Amino acid sequence: MYSWDNPDDRISIAQMNSELQHAQLELLSAHCATHQLRLRFSADDLARFGQRDILRKSVQAASALSEYYSSIEKRIPAAEAAANPILLTEDLILQAAARLAAYLRQQHDLYIPSAVPLNNRQKALLWPYFSAALLDRVRIVELEGERVANPPFYDEYRALGFVNLPEVAHMHSLTFLDVIVFNEKVNERSLFHGLVHSVQFEVLGLERYCDLFVRSFANTKLHFSVPFEAHAFSMESRFVGTPTTRFSVEDQVRLWARQARY
């Protein structure tokens, strides 16, 4: 069993979460495809006229996945109890949100001098998912020989029991307001994801974003379960899965904000 106190295990845990993220994206893509199927065709029609071998394989795959993830879900309460995190008070939540906001501003100011605008090909690909104004304003940085470091307050919050803080150095990209910094080579998928976060900052404002992020992470204890991340991954999956069907990311973000889903 892995231990966060073992440096080698930390690398394995980061790799595990990276693979978990990839699996989640594939599941989201399958969920979207199944949802479209559900909207267009009834279960009775699928059972009567669907190709038998494909139906059986689909049912078997879904059942196996459900069984696997259900077995993990049963272990989550015990794992959380073992971690024994301290329940954050309102004052601690407000303090953490303020520190996160300050960190994002500092990182923005650190990287903006070396950031460059999107090129014309990137803008053409990403419009109209994003407004022309946003695509003109956003800047990107592709790091070479270095990676973004973890925030300085990580050790303090890990001591409080939050052992699942995301390893910043192992993330593909980080969005600091309108500056997206890439630990690895820029690709269309990760650029789209980073731009979604820029829209979230734009729509909600930095302070509200940070407040909602901290409260959600305090509840879920997992970075990938925070609605800001889940929504970005969901739209990223739509972008990759159906590139010919474009949608407005800003409209989607404003909808979630109105529905208090963040």
Spans where pLDDT lies below 50 across 5 or more residues: none
**What is the percentage of strand-forming residues?**
5-15%
First-to-last CA distance: 33 Å
Count of DSSP helices? 11
Radius of gyration, CA atoms, in whole angstroms: 20 Å
Helix content: 55-70%
The main pleated sheet reads as: 4 strands, mixed
Description:
This protein has a four-stranded mixed sheet. Helix content is 65%, strand content 5%. It is built from eleven helices and four strands; from the N terminus they run H-H-H-H-E-H-H-E-H-E-E-H-H-H-H. The chain is mainly alpha-helical. Strand 3 (173-176) and strand 4 form a beta hairpin. The longest helix is centred in the N-terminal third of the chain and has 34 residues, at 7-40. Helix 4 packs across helix 9 and helix 8 packs across helix 11. It has a domain at 86-258. The mean pLDDT is 88.
Annotate the secondary structure layout.
Layout: H1 7-40, H2 43-49, H3 52-83, H4 90-111, E1 116-117, H5 120-126, H6 132-137, E2 139-142, H7 154-159, E3 173-176, E4 179-182, H8 188-204, H9 206-220, H10 227-241, H11 249-258
Helix pairs in contact: 1-10, 4-9, 8-9, 8-10, 8-11
Summarize the structure.
Helices cover 65% and strands 5% of the residues. With 262 residues, the protein is mostly helical.
Task: Describe the structure using short key phrases.
11 helices, globular
